[in-house]
Amino acid sequence: MDIIIWLIVAISLTWFMSSVRSSLSTYTLSFAALMVIGTFLDIIGFVSWLLFAVIALPLNIDSVRQQFISMPLLALFKKIMPQMSTTEQEALDAGTTWFDADLFRGNPDWTKLHNFPKPRLSSEEKAFLNGPVEELCAMVNDWEVTHEHADLPTEVWQFLKDNKFFAMIIKKKHGGLEFSAYAQSRVLQKLTGVSSVLSSTVGVPNSLGPGELLQEYGTKEQQDYYLPRLVVGDEIPCFALTSPEAGSDAGAIPDTGVICHGEFEGKEVLGMRLNWDKRYITLAPIATVLGLAFKLQDPDHLLGDIVELGITCALIPTDIEGIAIGRRHFPLNVPFQNGPTQGKDVFVPLDYIIGGPEMAGQGWRMLVECLSVGRAITLPSNSAGGIKTVALATGAYSHIRRQFKLPIGKMEGVEEALARIGGNAYLMDAVTTMSTGAIDLGEKPSVISAITKYHLTEKMRACVIDAMDVHGGKGICMGPNNYLARSYQGAPIAVTVEGANILTRSLIIYGQGAIRCHPYVLAELQAANNPNNEQALSDFDHALFGHVGFAISNISRSLWCSLSGSRFVPTPFNDETRRYYQLLSRFSANLAMLSDIAMLALGSDLKRKERISARLGDVLSHLYLASACLKRYNDEGREADDLPLLKWAVEDSLYKIQVAIDELLHNFPNKWLAATLRLIIFPMGAWLSLPKDTLDHTVARILQTPSPTRTRLGQGQFLTRNNTNVFGRLEQTLEDIINAEPIFDKVCKALNEKFPFYQLDVVAEKGLAAEVISSAEAELLVKAEQGRKWAIAVDDFDSSDIENKKAT
Ligand SMILES: Cc1cc2nc3c(=O)[nH]c(=O)nc-3n(C[C@H](O)[C@H](O)[C@H](O)COP(=O)(O)OP(=O)(O)OC[C@H]3O[C@@H](n4cnc5c(N)ncnc54)[C@H](O)[C@@H]3O)c2cc1C
User: Residue of 235, 316, 536, 802 with fewest CB within 10 Å of its CB?
Assistant: First the structure.
């Protein structure tokens, strides 16, 4: 009996100490104490002590451990370690980790999450949103932009320049607006609801491009010259990296700059002769200054010993001889300015390199550092803003449009699509807020920005498809009254740019996440690359044993969470959200365990096993997305009425985590290992399901019924009620219809007849004749009928317009 009790205590101790991540020495001492007790109880004898000594002593004596364990493992590690190119190394070195690291490490601190300050707008930022942004939204008619002008009208361009829309990121000392990332996101969200041409045009100069590169790396002369000119729109910038031969593999650009002497503006100077062929460059057709990425070479050693200096970024005025620029691409009927550019033997001084000649070869690092910020702002904000507006519009339309004598939004099939739109709109706003908040705290969150970019652009595409389905033919027939089709057409643009999504999911999210967020892998890689053998061994030994303890602790936590249903995981709140924190903690432990086992089992093959990597990235991503929702709910005061939206978003994320783990185990190359992992993670099988139909129903109702919750869902969007803003008019019509419904019912009841819910003006006349409604009520019916007819109408054209392609 004593033996059994002793064994249970020993196993529990091992389990507990690994769960709390005790150090090796603490664990050894605790186990030694247990052995002493065992000796007194006559359970532990000489052989057990000998075994203990054989295991514990080498592990605890540094020199022995390093010599006999760490050294051979370091040699093996060097052999299987994935080879990293310089561009990959620079991508890894760029940026910082934030709450993503907590989620990756298996034991997230939820109090820490909630203690991050809630992003807020300054009074200046609020005034900008309520002033120039509101005014700009009212100026733009997307049909005219996309169909008639294929560009923004001249007065809109001027308004953008006059109000410094291109200078949101530029510091005040250079005349810019110096807005927070959060404020930039709010501006873009509002603009994109009106026109994606508008939000792309504003987004690009404020994202990765000359403005940001100059501020971060430019020389004082470059900053003093260009930044004030960019602020007022005297210079229009673009940034050219992509070439026909190098898209996703941007590090492989064939464009070159060769250092040589030449004549520039009548003087003999040291410069570079540039040759490039770039495509897809946003704003290029109208740009006055081209941020150019190319590979710099110094074959005549004019700068030093190195011939291949590497990727370099320079600012090239577009009026220099030899530059071809001005032609346009036509991206999916969303005709923002975008086109190719070529340069043939263009000679410029070395001073044109951003940051001057000493920044030669530093281009890739500069780009990935800037991307780790910009990727979390522009495209995610455009996606979130678009879907927030679409959510309200689709909700309103679903209540206004009736078939089978019912609002279509009451049909369960439509509710399913509406719930996806509503839940994702809540999530997307939560994620942009949290990610831009991280940037405003000084982070350059490279993994988070990849997660945010990938998932928000994917969700935008999926939600627009849902919205199109709900609108039926109204979504399909193009014209000034179609507020959906351009978003539907343009959705793949956001998916493709700033790192096409398949690549982002397959390589970047987990590839960077595993190395950046893991507490030991980066240290192990750095140790293995350290030419100082002694230091390498010491660093590797330290990282390795930390790693082993970390791995054991995550296995223990995973097992414990599975067996206990994670019911004992502490949570910051004891309400309906409690279970969500517990399940996210459980999946976080699972991710940490799976990640280590995948790295151990697959080694350098993991880099090629993109679908394993993608699924691990999905787990990390959905942990992050759900955390952002929990933070939003808390930051907004834990409004009980918002709970259905939170529940939908978190339950959808939890389900997707389960699917990702399930698929990963199903496809794991080692079947026995996969079976063991499945037993640890899903001892009772996969048990989570998508949000229930009843929850879908509640979310669908929220979208169709004006309320503070619905208002929060569309917060910040352009919903001003006038007849030129379709979204404002839809909001008004929804309210009018809801107000008209009881009046309509009153007339039906009084006349004992069930009229169809159209020709409300005729119903009004009948009600007045029967003296069952007041004239004010009759007016409401008439107004509701006008709005209803407008809302369900689609555009038609003279056939010659279509034939002449004027109307498509
Ligand atoms: C409208 C528009 C605007 C743009 N604006 C700019 C700009 O201003 N400046 C600029 O420099 N560039 C710009 N780009 C370029 C954009 O960043 C690239 O299109 C993008 O990087 C993808 O390159 P690609 O189109 O050549 O696709 P490819 O590289 O040919 O990729 C095709 C597909 O293969 C996938 N893929 C590639 N490699 C892998 C891999 N290892 N694993 C998994 N999947 C992979 C990709 O995800 C993609 O789905 C723009 C592009 C467009 C369309």
Answer: 802
Query: Tens digits of per-residue pLDDT, 29-76?
Result: 888 898 898 898 888 888 888 898 888 888 888 888 888 889 998 888
How far, in Å, CA of 280 to CA of 243, rounded? Answer: 8
Q: Could you tell me the CA-to-CA distances from 598 to 18, 180, 306, 637, 664 in Å, in that order? A: 20, 39, 39, 40, 10
Q: In this structure, are strands 289-297 and 237-240 parallel, antiparallel, or unpaired?
A: parallel
Q: Ligand 1 pocket check: which of 316, 375, 454, 496 to mutate, most ligand atoms within 8 Å of Cβ?
A: 496
- At residue 604, what are phi and psi to the nearest 5 degrees? -70, -15
Q: Is 498 a catalytic residue?
A: yes
Return d(Cα 655, Cα 626) in angstroms, integer. Answer: 11
**Unique residue bearing structure tokens 């959060």:** 182
Judge contact between 649 and 430, C-beta under 8 A: yes
pLDDT tens digits, residue range 447-495?
Answer: 999 999 999 999 999 999 999 999 999 999 999 999 999 999 999 999 9
In whole angstroms, what is the distance from residue 111 CA to residue 573 CA? Answer: 10
pTM of the full structure: 0.95
100 CA → ligand 1 middle, Å: 25
Pocket test for ligand 1, best of 337, 370, 503 (most atoms within 8 A of CB): 503
In contact, 363 and 310? CB cutoff 8 Å: yes
Q: What tens digit of pLDDT does each residue of 652-703 get?
A: 999 999 999 999 999 999 999 999 999 999 999 999 999 999 999 999 999 9
Closest to 594 (Cα-Cα) out of 655, 504, 667, 540: 667
Amino acid (1-letter code) at residue 326 = G
pLDDT at position 205 over 60: yes
Buried b (16+ CB within 10 A) or exposed e, 233-260: bebbbbbbbbbeebbeebbebebebbbe
pLDDT per residue as tens digits for the range 293-337:
999 999 999 999 999 999 999 999 999 999 999 999 999 989 999
At residue 466's C-alpha, the angle toward residues 461 and 472, to 5°, is 125
Instruction: Provide the 8-state DSSP code for 692.
Output: P
